[in-house]
Amino acid sequence: MHNLSGLEISIIIKELKEITGSYIEKFYEIDKNIFRLKLSSQKIQINIESLIPGRINITSFIKKSETPTNFAIAARKQITNYIINNIYQLNNDRIIVFNLKNKDTEKNIIFEMFGKGNLIITDKSMNIILCYNIHDFKDRQIRPGKTYISPKNDFIGTDLDKLKFILSDFKKSLEQDRKSEEKVDDRLISILSKYLNFGPLYIEDALLSINLDPKIRISKINDYDIEKIIQALKQELEYSSRIEPIIYLNDSNQVLDYSLFKLKKYEESKQKTFNSFNMCLDFLNEFPELNLTKPSQQKEEQLKQIIGLENSIKKQHQLLKSNQDQMEINKLSGEIIFRNMNIINALIAELRNNNKISIEELQKIFPDFKILNIDLKQKTILIDLD
Fold it and tell me: Which among 98, 114, 142 is the end of a domain?
């Protein structure tokens, strides 16, 4: 199972564009390296969950932490009520930036989806206000008070014609200095990964499609091979423009991997397709026990039960795109009320015993949710159950 590649992150950002304009209602640290942003827009709540550096996606499966961590409390003070103004990929790398605005103030949430991962909050000028992990690297520092600098890279973006000259020059330099072959990793996939943000998974697929061993040394390929490599990589880009996200399973129904489109190496494996890359990641997020390559006791019946939940996931995502389906909203509201019925009954009982109690006093008794309004004449209570 691979972590997100730069190519996959570009697809995620396209799919996340729908949340721009939403405001951040609450920030959660669910567990180590797992965060959730609760967003609100047009009376619809959207939840973004990120496991750094593994994934980031809209989720239909809501997890909560028992008590806010110090980091969560600090983050809430910085970004609550900020509107998501823009989402973009930084420096063609595995870095996602949420640009935020609140009146005249601008901030950024930066998700580093490489290495051990990180979540960083900066001001408009990229000065670091808060970071989940403090790091001191040779060429940059990640700590409050420092200016955020992304790692240097040699990525060339999607201009694959440049790659033709890079490979040719690299090959010539090795031919001129034979000794360097022992010092430089001149495997084809390693060289391509240095200049392309596709990720090894898709580079490997391109090379397999033209029957080239990804680990072949660059000294073993010729100019004709380089032309074929460029065309195969362009084909991968074409596939990524019309994605059909897939998870691959072995005979024991364990997840082997996932991808944006069908890969040659997994063509004999069981496959499950999704309507969006976001749904694919959310599916894997909810069933982490599938993310194993070790033998397990999962059988076909269990897989069918899991896949049977996909319709429910689709309904959740349709709800994000349209607030006109009131019946579905009422259904979800009913489920929330049912799950919190004991708390609601206790609240009603407290009001019956003391109908002169203030909202502030009542809030102290019930600190786990927010009491918005009480109207005893109309016999109504407005609460936020999240």
Answer: 142
- For CA atoms 47, 81, 93, 229, the dihedral sign is positive
First to last CA, the chain: 33
Those residues whose C-beta lies under 8 Å from the C-beta of residue 250, and which sit 6 or more positions away, are: 256, 269, 270
Same-domain check for residues 193 and 207: yes
Could you tell me the two tokens for 260?
Answer: 């944006």
Q: Tell me, what's the pLDDT at 292?
A: 37
> Is 36 contained in some domain?
yes
Could you tell me if 17 and 87 lie in one domain?
yes
The pLDDT tens digits of the residues spanning 88-97 come to 999 999 999 9
CA–CA dist 341, 188 (Å, integer): 60
What CATH number does the domain containing 100 carry? 2.30.310.10
Please state, in angstroms and rounded to a whole number, the distance separating the CA atoms of residues 47 and 191. 38
H helical segments located in the chain: 6-16, 70-79, 161-176, 188-195, 200-209, 223-240, 277-286, 300-307, 310-321, 326-339, 341-353, 359-365
Q: What DSSP assignment string belongs to 90-132? A: STTSSEEEEEEEETTEEEEEEEE-STT-EEEEEETT-BEEEES
Q: Please check whether residue 12 lies inside any domain of the structure.
A: yes
- 311-364 tens-digit pLDDT: 555 555 565 555 555 555 666 666 677 667 777 777 787 777 877 788 888 788
What angle do the packed helices 310-321 and 326-339 form, to 10 degrees? 120
With the C-alpha atoms ordered 361, 386, 368, 353, is the resulting torsion angle positive or negative? positive
Show the tokens assigned to 111. Answer: 């998700």
Same domain, 105 and 175: no
Tokens 């390296």 belong to which residue? 33
Task: Report the b/e string of 146-156 with b at 16+ CB within 10 A.
Answer: bebebeeeeeb
| Interstrand relation of 44-51 and 55-58 (parallel, antiparallel or unpaired) | antiparallel
In a domain, 353, yes or no: yes
**Contact residues for 323 (Cβ-Cβ < 8 A; gap 6+):** 42, 43, 44, 329
Please tell me whether residues 260 and 357 are part of one structural domain: no
Note down the domain range covering 370: 340-384
Domain boundary among 86, 115, 142: 142
**How many domains is the chain partitioned into structurally?**
4
| DSSP state letter for 60 | S
Q: 58 with 137, same domain?
A: yes
